[in-house]
Amino acid sequence: MKVIVLGAGIVGTASAWFLHKAGHEVTVVERQPGAAQETSFANGCQISVSHAEPWANPSAPRKIWKWMGREDAPLLFRPRPEWLQWKWGLHFLRECTSARTADNIRQIVAIAEYSRQTLQAVRAETGIDYDCLTRGILHFYTDEKDFEESLAAARLMRELGCPRNSIGAEEVIRIEPALSKIAHKIVGGDYTATDESGDVYKFTTGLAARAAAGGVQFRFNTAITRLLTEGTGAQAKVTGVEIISPEGRHQTLQADAFVVALGSFSTPLLKPLGIELMIYPGKGYSAT
Asked: Does domain 2-42+201-273 match CATH 3.10.129.10?
């Protein structure tokens, strides 16, 4: 088949890689001048199956209220007069029950473990250098209540096969001596030896280069305007995508199948087709 992938972040690039390996003719369309220029440029870079507990959990509403108005909040919420934000927020709150959280953890652990195994296989196959560290990931707590709340999630993950071990403050310092200066503030932590970290930008650009060398076509500096369909209702099929080329020309690209990997930009692109994605952009931060 001829497949067009929209978006050259980590998801779009990896999709193109595996589709090409499966024997398909693949073209990737990206508005930026290269791969991994937006969300995949500098995210947290953790392969942390152990932290599969979703943001939507029983303690989230209390934390959001506590952090309201703080620009440095780990979970920042700025109310806007925007229906999608409030609709997304209602869906978020619906997932904050104990039962829904437990079910979501099971699903996230399963897909995250599969993702980690797949990443390891690609790393072995391609030899991409992306500053990968396989020394495990340590999380520490300075609030007794937060630590107590983490114990149930850690116990559930161990039951699901993820070795997230809850540890005391002394063990935290033993694993990471650099924290000794604030030892008096640490109440506990958890450590997962199988977790990894790395540079997602380096990995994505490395994978894109290898995909391009293998025959995947990347069309950078190319804006996506809309998807074209044939038929109506359930019988409708996407047959093409309208683009604006780097030279400013409007063109139509046709294919047998399409992969939409545009992050939060996927929502407005698919809405005219009657596909309502409950995706809303969020802010995160990391320190390297």
From this structure: no
